[in-house]
Amino acid sequence: MTLDINLKGEYEIMKMSKLFVQTLREFPSDAEVISHKMLVRAGYIRKLTSGVYNYLPLMWRVLKKIENIVREEMDAAGAQELLMPFVQPKELWEESGRWEVYGKELMRLRDRHNREMCLGPTHEEIITSIARDGLKSYKQLPVNLYQIQSKFRDEVRPRFGLLRGREFIMKDAYSFDMTQEGLEKEYANMAQAYTKIFKRCGLNTKMVQSDSGAIGGSVSHEFMVITDTDAGENDVFYCDNCDYAANSNHAVSKLPGVNEGVKLTGDWQTAQIVDTPNTHSIEELCDFLKIPSTLIVKTLVYIIDKKSVLALIRGDKQVEETKLMNAFGGNDIRIATAGEIEEMMGVNGFEAEKGFIGPKGLKEYNGYEITVIADETVKEMKNFVIGINQKDKHGVGYNWQGGKYLGLVGETTSLTSQGGKYLGLVSETTSLTSQEGRCNGAESDTKGLIELPETVTDIRLVEAGEFCPQCGKPLKVTRGIEVGNIFQLGTKYSKPMNAVYLDQNGKTQPYIMGCYGIGISRTAAAAVEAHYDEHGIKWPLAIAPYHAIVIPVSTKDEEQMRVANDIYLTLKKHGAEVVIDDRDERAGVKFKDADLIGFPYQIIVGKSIAEGNVEFKIRETDEKTAMKPEEAAEVVITAINNL
Amino acid sequence: MTLDINLKGEYEIMKMSKLFVQTLREFPSDAEVISHKMLVRAGYIRKLTSGVYNYLPLMWRVLKKIENIVREEMDAAGAQELLMPFVQPKELWEESGRWEVYGKELMRLRDRHNREMCLGPTHEEIITSIARDGLKSYKQLPVNLYQIQSKFRDEVRPRFGLLRGREFIMKDAYSFDMTQEGLEKEYANMAQAYTKIFKRCGLNTKMVQSDSGAIGGSVSHEFMVITDTDAGENDVFYCDNCDYAANSNHAVSKLPGVNEGVKLTGDWQTAQIVDTPNTHSIEELCDFLKIPSTLIVKTLVYIIDKKSVLALIRGDKQVEETKLMNAFGGNDIRIATAGEIEEMMGVNGFEAEKGFIGPKGLKEYNGYEITVIADETVKEMKNFVIGINQKDKHGVGYNWQGGKYLGLVGETTSLTSQGGKYLGLVSETTSLTSQEGRCNGAESDTKGLIELPETVTDIRLVEAGEFCPQCGKPLKVTRGIEVGNIFQLGTKYSKPMNAVYLDQNGKTQPYIMGCYGIGISRTAAAAVEAHYDEHGIKWPLAIAPYHAIVIPVSTKDEEQMRVANDIYLTLKKHGAEVVIDDRDERAGVKFKDADLIGFPYQIIVGKSIAEGNVEFKIRETDEKTAMKPEEAAEVVITAINNL
Predict the structure, then answer these.
(1) Contacts of A266 (CB under 8 A, 6+ apart)
(2) φ, ψ at A315 (rounded to 5°)
(3) Is the confidence at residue A130, as pLDDT, over 90?
(4) Alpha carbon distances (Å) from B182 to B125, B179, B188
(5) Can you state the angle between helices B180-200 and B57-76, rounded to 10 degrees?
(6) Which ipTM value was assigned to this complex?
(7) Taking the CB of residue A337, how many other CB atoms lie within 10 A of it?
(8) What whole-number distance in Å separates Cα of residue A616 and Cα of residue A571?
(9) Mean pLDDT of the A144-170 span
């Protein structure tokens, strides 16, 4: 028996046999994260080329629902929608100064007349040009303009499916205010709208402080979906005791004191150069010298925007690369290779090599301009161990020269070693040199003074257990997927682009701007990361492609088909989005597809219809209940009416 | 007095003072057509760069409305929406063979890994790859998939604002069938949907036969908005007596007979070469020889895809370049320059020059491969005049050699001249040579035979007054703006791309495809071309950015403001999209802006409120009526409920 209802037009496609979806038996081999695996296998997306996906009909339904939620909340918050082009002219990017600095993620192209253009990775330049053309008087301010649109960023290594693609859908909003207070008010307004949006999408998000990155500006926050899956690309540090939460690229913390009350004794009281053969890592150096890493000034070599930067940090801490890049004022950072280090510093008497690099005398060397940036952790260090650009040697008992640290040589901080095991508070002192005989051949350096770098700032990666900067309680760490971000841009774009309005006194003033993004396709993927099990997706009702599926177990059973049709039509009549699985397939195949695709409600019409019952399954819990067909329909209708 | 209602969120932007719109006092200087002028001046669009526009909030509202109408009708017709990427990989375009042939309109680019890509001008390749991946069984067919998306075509000369831009919004649908009959059924289904869509948008369209162009396929139709403005880029030939209608690039006609019953007498009976000095145009040649242009075989030189093509056509008719290009099988056509003609044919004894070119002996000449294509009009010509590649000379009394035309020399068709005025049916005969003395120096060519080109086909531009190919009545011509098109592609993409399904017998078969486009942004512009007056736009209600505007004449008048607020809130409550002009501006400024922007209904609250009346203006007719506020609201509410 086939469906006895005469379906037409859009109703036709609610038949599973006609729905454009092909589920796969296996997860795709190139997928690393859950959302990528699930969305491909369940027939939502197909890769067109690296980082570029086709959104098939099921996916598009999800995306449209997210778009509509975003649109409703943005409109309700007073923003006005427009649409800017995908292709942008170079000239505006030159005005803002970003044409040069944006890097390779900016996809550049030339038209047939050889004019340079780019594919929009974001639209600050365009919106600023629109504003300066259309917002000429204070009477028109404040304004918030937004669009929902595809963007392109030529990621070096696209991955994770929709989470880090090259072409993706984004909502981007831009606000124009007269004062910082106005901006802050709109910033709070947007934060509130975002909280509503993600809640309506069924996502539990945390608003965290973050780095402003290539967008710029002073204050920014990200909205993170907290997840334990591999897709969480960001570490988020947060405090249970207060509301502090920050992306690792922006998190700060208070540190416990170290080495306090420990006295430096023996040869360590005197600055000297000691032999430290083959100590290429902090760990090896600690082992060899029998000291804690807290007494070592670690030196790392980075390449930022093709320039060399030495980063100094206390030996037990890690450098946070975004912080370092920002401290330098750069746009692109990576650790230097061994070859680069050798090329830069391994000549003219220096025997620079990983493990032995230090800042001493290295301002401009071997034709390379070298910038030294120190983390705040090194500022208070005394009688420390540091690389001195000589292979297999380190300076010990060294101190900072200059500033308020001058003259602190030989003071209270001590270094103690006992049988190769460091006990921070043991007062017994042993001279490494005398005890271990490892300082043979060390030159005497009675001064042991190194200039403290000009730039001493926070470039440290926070670790869980360090103390909350707000309330002092230990911080926790979790992983998050960024789905939205908000930025206080200030005049970063309006000033260089001369985007001004006339104020009440007839004076031109640059707009105080903010910008606010939501990754639409990213939000869909994050929803999968947050809602799935081994059988498939568990869409939140508000963004599911369909609310329900009706599954007649046997399409050859007239009674089952009759009841299934009845339920289907009842649901349709009440505005539910429902699919009927009319395929002549085994029940197991239909159940598996229903779970994989992730229909929130599944109404299974099988043999128990003889007792007047259908099986009602809630995908979120996989709970199954026998109930009357009309009861099942009622549950679905009530749920969608409550959306 | 300010608005005493506490507007919040989306309501806030319904205040004219807060709406992001800036009308201009003048039309933009670079705009050539009405829609471009109006949309810029009324604050709907702003140019970002050549052929690329920002859609400001008013425009975006119009576009969304058109999109929604399109979406509703496509869904009702059973199509399923998806979204394909803007950026496409070269590989798929190589599979279809279009990477090479598409020409410079295809915007090509390279990513950071030097992979070649393009911006989608259309999506046949992508959808075909999606289908072959997802439609593997006959059970899944037929399917129609569509998207609404920005496209990019790097037009050599973008113009006319949204009508011929480079980045534009399009709905493109693609159908997959098993049989030609299935395709034809879906083609008719789409034609019906299109008719509904444009009608709902308030547009009067004609469905006309057209050339398939770069999309390919055998049968195609365009939906044209008939207009008398400069924006009508296409000539449409149509018949009032039957349903025939065709784009000039595809129109055919029956011609009246010429030269019948006229006898060729005197020297013209014998093929000969005559002196025809300085006769560079058909007109000059006719004047000189005292003959009608119907006796001349006109030869034109074109460059098609960098190759030389001679087109032969009867002297009184024009070549239709698209038809000629298709006859050659090319993608790009232009007339050759005088320099090119000289370079090709002006050596080795030939003195080729505009006006004296002919096909004789010109298959491969001077290193150029030359193709000769003749229009059907020349086929039946006898004893004609033709260029023979000698400066200031023509062949007269020439005939076709080969095929059934061989041996027709000296037959019935006559050439008559009388005192410089040709009278087609006059039987008096005069020899040009003897009478005018112009044939001095002419060589005798007793054969006068020229090979009829292999390709004889229709390359003629139809003219009004020629006869309908269906019913024989005279054709009329009008101008149209193409807003939609439908194509029967057949297996043009599925075969080369090996896009197949398994039929009932387990055999692979290529899909029979169709494709169906609607220019969303173009439809908006065409609506302006069809609905405007000197004061501004007259939007059809269904696609107007707002349904109505309420204009309190004086915002300082408490009673006016109170009534305006009441009407505004009443309209809002009933779902109308309404703006209140709260600006402290002169009434004239407000009225002008309302007309320019094109609010379909304008409710003006002025002094007549003392008598309990407002002025109700219908923009379409500019008719104004005094009525009670509640009556005015009622008219608007009724109208939108009838949409």
Answers:
(1) A429, A430, A431, A432, A433, A434
(2) -55, -25
(3) yes
(4) 21, 5, 10
(5) 140
(6) 0.86
(7) 12
(8) 14
(9) 95
**Test the A interface: residue of B22, B44, B80, B127 with most A CBs within 10 Å:** B80
Residue B490 identity: G
Helix (H, G, I), strand (E, B) or coil at A340: helix
The rounded mean pLDDT for chain B is 87
- Residues B310, B369: Cα–Cα separation, whole Å: 11
Q: B87 and A119 in contact by Cβ < 8 A? A: yes
The answer to whether the CB atoms of A82 and B59 lie below 8 A apart is yes
Report the share of chain B in percent with pLDDT over 70: 86
B362: confidence class by pLDDT, cuts 50, 70, 90 = low
Render pLDDT for A26-46 as a digit per residue (tens, 0 to 9): 999 989 999 999 999 999 999
**What pTM value is reported for the model?**
0.87
Q: List the 70-99 stretch of B: residues with Cβ below 8 A of A.
A: 75-78, 80-89, 91
Number of H helices, E strands in chain B: 14, 33
C-alpha to C-alpha distances, B185 to B202, B405, B484, nearest whole angstrom: 26, 43, 18
Whole-angstrom Cα distance, residue B369 to residue B366? 8
H/E element holding B323? Answer: helix B321-328
| A600 upstream amide cis, omega within 30 of 0 | no
Q: Is A138 within 8 Å of chain B by CB?
A: no
What value does the mean pLDDT take over residues B469-492?
95
Q: How far is B14 from chain A (nearest CA, A)?
A: 10
B148 touching A (Cβ < 8 Å): no
For residue A101, what pLDDT is reported? 85
Beta strands B219-226 and B476-490, pairing class: antiparallel
Q: How far apart are CA A48 and CA A46, in angstroms?
A: 6
Structure-token match 């800036």, residue found = B22
CB-based contact B20:B57 (threshold 8 Å):
yes
Partner B contacted by A112 (CB < 8 A): yes
**Rounded CA gap, B29 and A79, in Å?**
32
The mean per-residue pLDDT over the stretch B529-548 comes to: 97
Sign of the CA dihedral with B403 first, then B404, B410, and B416 last: negative
Fill in the DSSP letter of residue B138: G
